[in-house]
Each structure stands twice: as structure tokens, then as C-alpha cells.
Amino acid sequence: MGKNKTELLSTEVRHLDIKKFDFVTLIDQMQDTAFQARNLARAAKIYEQMLTDQNCGVILCLAGSLVSAGLKKVILDLIDNNMVDAIVSTGANIVDQDFFEGLGFKHYQGSPHLDDTQLREMAIDRIYDTLIDEDQLRICDDTICQIADSLPPRAYSSREFISEMGKYLEKHGKNKDSIVLRAYQKSIPVFVPAFSDCSAGFGLVMHQVAKPDSHVSIDSVKDFRELTQLKIHAGDTGLLMIGGGVPKNFAQDVVVAAELLGAEVPMHKYAIQITVADERDGALSGSTLREACSWGKVSVVHEQMVFCEATIALPLIAGYAYGKGSWQSRQARSYSSLFTSKQRELA
Amino acid sequence: MGKNKTELLSTEVRHLDIKKFDFVTLIDQMQDTAFQARNLARAAKIYEQMLTDQNCGVILCLAGSLVSAGLKKVILDLIDNNMVDAIVSTGANIVDQDFFEGLGFKHYQGSPHLDDTQLREMAIDRIYDTLIDEDQLRICDDTICQIADSLPPRAYSSREFISEMGKYLEKHGKNKDSIVLRAYQKSIPVFVPAFSDCSAGFGLVMHQVAKPDSHVSIDSVKDFRELTQLKIHAGDTGLLMIGGGVPKNFAQDVVVAAELLGAEVPMHKYAIQITVADERDGALSGSTLREACSWGKVSVVHEQMVFCEATIALPLIAGYAYGKGSWQSRQARSYSSLFTSKQRELA
Amino acid sequence: MGKNKTELLSTEVRHLDIKKFDFVTLIDQMQDTAFQARNLARAAKIYEQMLTDQNCGVILCLAGSLVSAGLKKVILDLIDNNMVDAIVSTGANIVDQDFFEGLGFKHYQGSPHLDDTQLREMAIDRIYDTLIDEDQLRICDDTICQIADSLPPRAYSSREFISEMGKYLEKHGKNKDSIVLRAYQKSIPVFVPAFSDCSAGFGLVMHQVAKPDSHVSIDSVKDFRELTQLKIHAGDTGLLMIGGGVPKNFAQDVVVAAELLGAEVPMHKYAIQITVADERDGALSGSTLREACSWGKVSVVHEQMVFCEATIALPLIAGYAYGKGSWQSRQARSYSSLFTSKQRELA
Amino acid sequence: MGKNKTELLSTEVRHLDIKKFDFVTLIDQMQDTAFQARNLARAAKIYEQMLTDQNCGVILCLAGSLVSAGLKKVILDLIDNNMVDAIVSTGANIVDQDFFEGLGFKHYQGSPHLDDTQLREMAIDRIYDTLIDEDQLRICDDTICQIADSLPPRAYSSREFISEMGKYLEKHGKNKDSIVLRAYQKSIPVFVPAFSDCSAGFGLVMHQVAKPDSHVSIDSVKDFRELTQLKIHAGDTGLLMIGGGVPKNFAQDVVVAAELLGAEVPMHKYAIQITVADERDGALSGSTLREACSWGKVSVVHEQMVFCEATIALPLIAGYAYGKGSWQSRQARSYSSLFTSKQRELA
């Protein structure tokens, strides 16, 4: 490669801004074509329907490396403009990437053809064509440990802990463009059901090892309980899913969980998923939304899979919905408040 | 479809038995061909190397719907014959599918072309071409709830809870061919880092809602702590990964976690992954094992991706290693004992 | 389905117009993100480089069902604005879809979930989510037969025959938006190396069976000879490839063919490919452009694969190059004239 | 890389021998599992049905780099044991790979991670993880040119020319394990509808340029005519398709072509395809066999897609059919004789 660490980490990933284009005309035209362009247009229009449906809460599911890939501002625009009411994510997006950037760190443009053994020696971590300074990631781990150290020892949902991370960034953050921060400020709950499977896990392991007898623990059942409570409260819901994995499964499952608790809730009324996976391996990530209907999770009336990589598809879908402007008359749900005032009722 | 529930649920999925074939000759021949056959042969031989390496602990990672797809007996043969020392899995495999079968229930052969709305009305759940009786799945959820009800309220790792599930099956199970049961009996720890993201979540939510003040919680940090402890104890390790997702990430991450705790541990010395995902979307599931090297998780010396669906690839790889017979002189690690005797030392 | 043929064939596919949108800002922003958005931006910029390079002839390769999918106008804009100098395509795009539309027929929006047995009974042909009136396709076959009947019997290259199809449309066509027509009028040669593998094959088989002793034949060697001649004449060349298959292979191969004829020609200087295929099966369609370098066909300096379905990716790439406007000062190559005046020199 | 050409070309690809393994038990077990293992088993059984159906002619379609990947002996076993009656292929398999090996040359094991620029300098061509000596490939091109030089100048179908290649190998070949040779000897016609799109193209271009006024040409319409004639003669037919591309389309199309010529022929009664492509891009290679039914080409009663790379799937499917042994009572069709004796009747 012939480049040193400073040279390799010189070109930042910049976050795409959907507010600078007119995606409405483009999507309207794609609607009349075929294949994935038509699927993408159909998905964009279903998302727009979710936003115009006054009774519908919107749950955004995030899997894959979206924040490091330059999609953070897209997600921030959804948050800022009342286009999303709850978030279910992998830990990588929320902690390693978003909280990490909130601490003032950056992601850098690289190449999939770099020599990984040499990167290892330079303490540079690679995600496909994106590079991270591993030393900075260790600071992110440590910060999680510090936050845990500062909290009363008990079982937390990931949502509660992420809320604390938002509070931390409000005081100590160096970059206000953070999903964790902005969601905290707008009372949008963020769930990471596999919370220890990321930088948060490193920080919390250090915390628990240092405090063996009394420490913060993360109860993923509590997450499930809270998201179910949210579904019961919300009634009609729509899913905007980027990638599959745990967030997709978790968010779909709450319909069944609510039923088990005796609540009569509708299936997710709207559901769209952006993915490159397909159904052939029987795994959840590529399973069709029609299959989810057999499980009683998703209605088949307004569902659409879009087989396209997210860095291309999400800006177009989100940009269309932004451009249509119906978010302007949409109310913020502030679902986080559910878990302070009403938590005791259900729990 | 024109079939009723009994007709649709009439042909069982049966579990493939690798002990009935000579896969050694086949793999030896595939070794000299090309493309995925050669990759598969190379992976099989790396797995065999793990087993002959006396100092290497083998971690099996399971993602996707493997048990319902007829691969349970393959995994049981690995357990029974000291070919695997720890398991990291999605909840679906361990609870919804394996524990479910341990309770005496079955999976059924269906088709991806069935009408999901009609399946929903009959309470039949579909996974690609496989069918499940939803009423039986509710019994599985309830059983998890009962197990939780019977335990002292505190924070458990998923490993601890799954161990209790093994104990339950030993007493009340109706099918001895169970990964949960057999791993329990052989002291092989089973981790499910996103434990509430499956039938276990349903049972545990019911448990917690019924016992709001004092209940079992699942601390995923404790899982991470325990698996890290296992890595520190094991020294050299090899990963046999089916699919990607949380199990892949979680198992790879323990190398870094061990370093953060001050332990000097080697990267995973061997790593193979069976998947149909690819690297193009930057997501973890399809990320190359070389990329994992940049993160200091996996050595590039003995690594191999196999791009093939698991129902075809796993029997060939496992069957080859079984056929070679080096497991006959391999010692059981009984890693579960680490967490009873030595837990206090680290924790 | 419950719909009759008229109802099923009621909503036309409409062709997307790249001139209505500012793709330049979008691509410039995608350039600084990651994954396929960055690959797409890089490809768009390589295409723009081809157009600003005064010495570079641009060869467009078309595989997959692009015209029926609503991408015809994109391709027409490339033709009209001197953004492409030669075309190598599958027969489906040129005959079944473009010539078919030139005759006044349309493609219709459908769904991948329709019942194919019922479609068969109604004589409706399906391509994923697009529908075709089979009776109209038979008229297309017949027209090819009539054109063949009108020509002097001898061996033709596909280019020669397609040129005759352009002449036919000029006189008898009912829709001036046709690649075959417009390429004919602008002296842009169109090659279909597997010419009988489409509606043209049906028409020509009828022609030959009716005239067993003296008829038109299609010599694919002549195609290869002509495209090689074009490469020798053009010198520097760039490939804009949509999909893989025969067009990709054929266009790459001319570099080697030229060398075998004793001409010193450079490898293709620029090459981009839009595809969803990957390299794992060792097939040509997904083979990397770096692999093509080992064969001496493509330079690795300016090459980019974009892993995205073409209905989404092509408008963005073509729209960027259109928006940059360097085509305004670019000269038409009129390569078709090579084969009238200079043919004898080489042949 | 640090290796020279001799070192890089030192380990031969060896051809897998299906006769050494009991695939019947394996496939019977896969039949009761799920996902692609069950699809593969179903495909194997459909192929076996084709062979037991006394009235069914079997057409083998070959796309992708199968011969260089070590699958040649599998195909030879199908030929030798009356398990295939006609072949439709890409040129790469038949000329660059099989005829090439017939001349005594070999393919070598390499790696997808080699440096293509260095390979280019050493005149080594790469196909994923397989290497070819480019100097030997030039000899293959030249041999095609010599064969063309020796033939009376006229329009040939690819089948006729490939038959001449078989004759050549019978006299001058250095390796009797050749599809071209063995098919010639068994009167099994081999069609390559895009014949100039391979090493044959190079040789024939040299031939035509050297003999501008009177030369061999390859009429792909004649191929289509002949294959249609074969279909009319055969009546019931089954397709065993490896990969997609031109061979898949061409072989499917003959049903329609036969109808256009006034013959009443059944759709292909059986059809199986091994591929890693999927339907999402609307291209032919991954289009479902159900979609082909809407075109009137393939019956949906006995059809199966297998989503698996061919080096793994083909040995299992072919090995199962071989192991079942019904080929022992199957008659050779010797379809090549159709084109000598009966050609005039239709043409």
C-alpha cells in the first residue's frame, strides 16, 4: 500500500444530505418503470403513506454499517422532521459509529483492496471501503464504561442506557450531529436488542469486571417488554427496515408479544425493507414480508421488499418522503415518555 | 391451496445423518476442482485442522434457520463426538427450533409458494419451505415462562438460562435429540447473545410482566464476559461459522474484549464461514474474514469463506471431519465448568 | 388473479427521462459516502472521463431486459447526445423490446406474483413484473421474416441486419423513440452477437425454412470481425456495461482479436459494469474487471464494478454524465461508415 | 506474489469423478430437509424422472466456466452413459476449455487474490481461482483457424463446425477425455449459439481475414433451425441447465420456434436449473422456470431451481442419477444423425 496511517485516514466519509435534491420527480418516474426501480418507488410511496396516516407510529430498523457509510444525516433528517418515532438498531450503528462520531471522531474513505494484515499493524479497522482509527474506538469503549460507572447498579434496558448516552453527549459531545443525541432530545426511544454485541459490550464488560458485585446489567427482556408496550400504545404501526438481522426480527415480533400479553393489536400495517439478501437460505434477513404475514406480524396489503444496497436506496426513499412534505403536519410521538410515566402500569 | 392444517402439517422435516456417507473421498476430489467446491474442501480441511490441533478450542456459530431445516443431527454429532466446545447461536435455532423439538414437536415440509394469508388463518408459521404449528410454538413460549418462574430472581447470562433449559429437558423432554439437552449434559456452553429475540423473549416477557418487582433478567453483558473468559482460558481457538449476524460478530469480538481486560490472547487461529451473503453491502454477515483481520480478530493464515447455502455445505464439511476420525483422540473441553468453579476469579 | 387480458395489459411501462433531474449534486455527494453509492459515483465519474477524453470511443453493452423495464429513453439520450459510439447487446433488448416498441407496441406493468399458467392461457408473457402481449410479439417475429425476405440472400453480420431494421422503421415504424432507428440514423453500429437468440431468431428461422436453398444467414464471425475493425480504428476505448453475458465478453475480447490480427491496440482504457452478479461462481457475468486485466482486455486504472440493479443505477450514472454536459463538445464517431467504405480493406 | 509462471502453473485442476461416491443415500436424505438441499434433491429426482421417461430427450445446457472448474468428467459420464442427448453451451466451455484440454493442455489451480497486472505480464489468464497459460490458448485459436481453412467455404451451424472439431480431435487430439470428441463419437449434437464469443471467434476471424472472398461462416440461425428440428423430432424433452445465459434462452425458445413452423410440440416437460442468480434484476439467467411457463416454454409440473454454485450442485445431481442406474436401460438418441439424413426434409 505504501501509505502510513495518517495518509490512509485522510479523506473523511461525508454524510449525504437528502434535502438538496428533488427526489419526488425521480421516484414518480421510477414508479412507471420496472424491477427494483419500481419496487423502490413503491416502497417510497408506502413510507409516505405511513407518514400521512395520522394513527400510524413509524419504527425505523437499522442493520448493517449505515452510519459509517455516510447515511447518518439521512437518519437525522428523519428524526428532526418527525418522520420516525422509534428506532431498533444493531449496536454497531448506534455505538461504534454514531456515538463514536458524537465524541468527535470520524470515518475515513478507504478501499476493499487494502492489505488487512498491514492495516492491523497500523491499528486501522476496515469495513469494506471505510476505515476507522482503532485507538479512537478504544476511547469510545472507555466512555461507555465511564457512563456505566456513573449509573446506579441495576438492570437497564438498552433504551435506558442509550438515553444516558444521549445525556452524556449533550454535556460532553463534540459533534451535535448524532442520532443518539438527537433521539434523546426528541424523546425517540432507541433500542439495541443485542447491546453487548458492539463497542458497548467492550465498555460494559470492563465495567462489570471492575465492579464484580454490583454493576449495571443490560436486560434484553426489558427491551422487548418496552417495545411491546410501545406497540400496544401506538396501535397502528409501520416498519421502515434497512437490512435484516435482529432489528427486523425484534420489531416484527412485538405484535405476537402484545397478543401474548392479552392486548389486541393490529399487525404492522405497513412494512418496507431495503436489503440485498434473498429468501433462498431460509434466514430471517432475506425472508419475505409475505412470509412474516404467516406469523401474524406484518399485513400484506402495504409491504415492499427493495433489493438494493442501502447507501443507494435509502437516500431515494427518505428523500422522496421528505420532498412530499407531509411530515410538516405530523406530530412528534415522544414515545420515550411512555417509559417514564406509564412504565409501572404494564411492568 | 385447498389443504387443511392437518394435511399441510403431514410430512416431517427429517434430520440428515452425516455418519452414513463417506464424505472424505468427495471432499478430497473437490479439493482439486475450483470455485466453491474448492473453497468448501479447503474449509473442511481447516475444520479438520482445528480438531487435530490439540491446543485449539472450537466455537460453533449458528445463524439462520438450521435446526428446522434438518441440520440438528449434524450439530448433535459434532457435540457427541467432541468436535465442538462452545456454541454461539441465534435464539431461533436454540429455542424456537431445538428446544421446541425437545418438547416433542416437529417441523414440517411445505413450499415457498403457499398463500401466507391462508397460513395465518390456520395458525401455521412458514420459514421458506418449512411449516410450524403456531399453537405448539405458544407451548414453547409458555415453557420458557415456567422455567423462569421456577428460578431465583436475578440477572442471568443466556448461557445460564439455556443450561436450565437443558436441565428441564432432561426431566421433562420428549425427544432426547436436542442440542440444548446434549450440550447441557456434555458441559458445552451455549450462548445466545440476543436471547429475547426469539420464543425465549415471549416467555420471559410474560414472566416479567407477571412478576414486575422481582424476576429473572437476561444480562447480555454477562454473556460477553463469559465468552471472553472462555477465550482467555482456551488460548488458541477456531471458529466454525454457519451464517453471519450476531453470533459471528460476538464470537469474533471476544479477542478484542480479552485484550481490553489485559489478557494476551491470540487472534482466532482458524476461521471458516458458510454463507450466501457477500461483502458488497458492507454488512457484517458477508464481510470477509480478511476484513476481520484488520480488526485483530481473525488470523488470515487459515481462513475460508464458502459461498453456499448451509443445508448443502454443512453436511459436507462436518461429514468430512467426522469421516477423518481425528475426533476419536480429542478431549472434551467441558467449558461450562469454567463458569461454576472459576467464575468468581474473573467476574 | 381475476383479471382478463385487457385489464392485465392496461398500465404501460413508461421510460424514465434523465433530463428532468439534477444528478450531478447527488453523485458528487455519493462520492464521499461508501459501499455501492461510492462505487456508483466512481463509475459515473469514469464514464464522464470517457466522454471528456477526446480520443476515446465509447462502447455500450446491454444485457438483461432493459428496454422493457423503462430504460429506453436513457439509452436514446446517450445516442442523441453523442455519449455512445457503438452498441453491443443481447437480442432481447434490440429486437423483442426496442424494435417491438418501434412497431408501435408497448410493455405493461404487472407483478412477479401473477399466476404463470393463467398468463400462458391468455397469451401474456411475463418478465419479472412486466407483461407483454404474445400476439404482438408474433407480429414482431413476422416483421423480421419480411425484412429477411426482402434482402439479397447472403451472410450478414447482425450489425448489417439491424441496420436494415432501422431502415424499415424509418419507413414503417410507428414510434420514433427506438434505439434501432436512432442508431441507424446516427451511424452508430449495433451488434447482437447471439442474434438468433431472440425474436429475430424466430423470424429468420421462418425465412430460412421458407427459402431452403437461398436465404439470409447471420454470420456471427463477421460481427466479431467488424467490432475488431472498429476497435483498431478507434484506438482508445471505454466500456459502459449494463449486465454481463455475451455483450460483455464479446466487447472485451476485441482487444485480443485485434492483437491476433497484428494490430497494436491498447486495452480498453476505461470500463464500468453495472450488475448484481458476483465473482463467486466463476462465470463471466460477475467476473471482476481486474480479472479481465489478466486476459489483457481491460486496464485496471479506470475500472469500477457497481453492484446494483440497472433500473436504479443506470439513470444515476447516465444522468450524471448528461448533467455534466461535456457531451456538448463531443464529436459523433459515425462508426457505421467504417463498414461501408473501409470494409474491404480489412476483410 | 513472488512466483514465476512455472510455479504458478504447477497444480492442475483435476476432474471430479461421480462414480466413486454413493450419492443416492445423500440425496434421499436431503429430500427430507429444507431450503436448497431439498431443492437440490428435488432437482436430482426430476432429472432421474427424465431418464426413466422413455419418450423424453434430455438437453444439457452449459453456461459458466464448468470445464476449467473440474466438471468435465461429470459431463463425460453423462455422455458415455446415455444420460444426455443434446448439448447447448457457451463457447468458453466447449472451445476454450474442453477442446483446449483435448489438445493436451491443462487448467491450473490459482487464487482469486493474485495480482492481475502481474498475471498479465506473465501471459497467465485467470478465471476466479483457476489459471490458464495464454500461449496455449493461442494454439487453440490457431487450431480452430486451421480447421476452418480445411473446410469447404459455406455457412455452417455451430453444431456442424463442432462436429468437425470432434473429427479433428479423433485424429490429432492428445487427451481422449473431451466433450467435443465423445459427443462427436456418440452422435450427440453440440450447439454453441454465440459461437464467435470465445476462442473459436479468434480462430474464425483469422480465417476470414486471410480468406476475404470465400470462407467459412457460422450461421446462428441454422443452429436455431436445427435445434428446433430436434425438438420436433424428440417430442417430449427435459432441460438440465447449468447456469443461464444464451444456452438457457436458446433451448427454451425452441418450443415457440417449433410452433411458429406449424409443428405441434409439447412444452419442455421437465426443467431444472442450477444457478446463483435470482429473479430480482429481471434478467433471463435468474428468471424462474414458472416465468418461462407464461411464455409457453416450460411446464410447471416438474421444474426446480437450485440456488447453489455448480461445482457443488452438479456432482450431487448427476451422481444421484448415475447411482440410480436407470441409464442402463436407456437408449442413445444419436440426434446428430437427424442433420445428415433428414436435414433436407425440413430445411
UniProtKB/TrEMBL annotation, chains A, B, C, D:
Keyword terms, alphabetized: Transferase
Q: Which Pfam families match?
A: DS
GO MF annotation: an example: deoxyhypusine synthase activity
Which Gene3D superfamilies does UniProt cross-reference here? Deoxyhypusine synthase (3.40.910.10)
UniProt-listed Enzyme Commission number(s)? 2.5.-.-
**Which spans are transmembrane here?**
none
Which top EC class applies here?
transferase
InterPro entries recorded: Deoxyhypusine_synthase, Deoxyhypusine_synthase-like, Deoxyhypusine_synthase_sf, DHS-like_NAD/FAD-binding_dom
Please provide one cellular component term from the Gene Ontology annotations of this protein.
cytoplasm
HAMAP family (alphabetical): DHS_like (MF_00640)
Which family does this protein fall into?
Belongs to the deoxyhypusine synthase family.
Q: What is this protein called?
A: Deoxyhypusine synthase-like protein
Q: Which organism is it from?
A: Aquicella siphonis
Q: What is the lineage of its organism?
A: Bacteria, Pseudomonadati, Pseudomonadota, Gammaproteobacteria, Legionellales
